[in-house]
Write a structure and sequence with these properties.
By secondary structure, the chain is an alpha/beta fold. It has nine helices and twelve strands. Helix 5 packs antiparallel against helix 7 and helix 6 crosses helix 7. It is globular, with a radius of gyration of 20 Å. The structure holds zinc ion. Zinc ion (ZN) binds next to loops.
């Protein structure tokens, strides 16, 4: 089923969906940026591809039935690498079992009878931050989520930089240490093995089995030496990644989101000090401001943008 654009003059409401490994969030939004209704549910990963698709369909139908609103389209930000033209998952890790190869667009359009647009979740979050968040209307920036892994997106001249298989901005698997830790992508020494929330939890755990990143931050706030050592390493790895990306792409700013940013004020001085040692260029970091809703809001924006084409 194919849908053409209809022009932006009489755009009504769309559904934005953020599909992650633990939760699916869906909301109805209008083009002024109002979130009119929101629902979420646990991602039924144990049911595999069919179960996840059924959950998406159920959320879409619930929102349509509850509100009676005329929904024009659905935008989805999904974990994994996404072929945006086809709306297909090029690759997803075991965070979403069986998701690789799923043609989300085609299957949901058939099930729901309205246009569906799909993009990677970090990329929709980047669109959300540009629409209603930390970098409104900024033309050239890079967005990174420091969460379970590290997601990334590059905005160039106000638009997402995309490639046919959706790999552009896949910064979590940029190699930081050639002989480093193995990664779930099959590679070694990837950026997300050192600077994600999962990596920070693992580093804390190596100090003391009872520690995770939350305990680590509590210890850091009272200047515990072991905690400070872990944070120095983390800040050094994160700064190395950011400086490399800056040399490649020279964004006006880096927008950083994800759970690790909850403790940003605590480790910001360490990061800034490490960046200053690596480069003379000013590297500007802006914390994301939409929190966990960024992916869902940006997915709605994606739907509006695609419908207007
Ligand atoms: Zn990797």
């Amino acid at each position: 089923m194919a849908y053409g654009g209809r022009g932006s003059a009489s755009m009504g409401e769309v559904i934005g969906i953020d599909l992650g490994g633990t939760k699916i969030k869906a909301g109805i939004m209008d083009e002024q940026g109002n979130l009119l209704r929101k629902l979420d549910m646990r991602t039924p990963i144990e049911l595999g591809r069919a179960g996840i698709l059924a959950a998406l369909e159920q959320l879409i139908q619930s929102l349509r039935n509850e509100t009676g609103a005329r929904i024009e389209a659905v935008g989805i930000g999904s974990a994994g690498q996404i072929d945006r033209c086809r709306g297909t998952v090029t690759f997803a890790t075991e965070l979403l079992p069986g998701w690789t190869g799923t043609n989300i667009k085609e299957l949901l359009q058939q099930a729901c009878g309205i246009p569906v647009f799909v993009e990677n979740d970090a990329k929709t979050a980047a669109l959300g931050e540009r629409w209603l968040g930390a970098v409104r209307d900024l033309a050239h920036y890079m967005f990174l989520t420091l969460g379970t892994g590290i997601g990334g997106a590059m905005i160039h001249e106000g638009k997402l930089l995309t490639t046919p298989s959706g790999g552009a901005g896949n910064v979590g698997h940029m190699v930081l240490h050639a002989q480093g830790f193995s990664c779930n992508c099959g590679g070694r020494g990837c950026f997300e093995q050192y600077a994600s929330g999962t990596a920070l939890d693992a580093s804390a755990n190596r100090i003391d089995p009872r520690w995770d990143s939350r305990v680590l931050m509590e210890k850091l706030s009272v200047k515990d030496e072991r905690a400070e050592h872990v944070i120095l390493r983390f800040a050094d790895d994160l700064s190395a990644g950011l400086v490399s990306l800056h040399n490649i792409y020279e964004p006006q700013v880096f927008v950083l989101g994800g759970g690790v940013m909850d403790s940003y004020p605590l480790w910001k001085p360490y990061l800034e000090s490490s960046i200053r040692k690596r480069t003379r260029h000013p590297i500007i970091i802006v914390p994301a401001s939409l929190g966990n809703d960024a992916g869902m809001i940006g997915a709605a924006r994606l739907a509006f943008d695609e419908m207007a084409l």
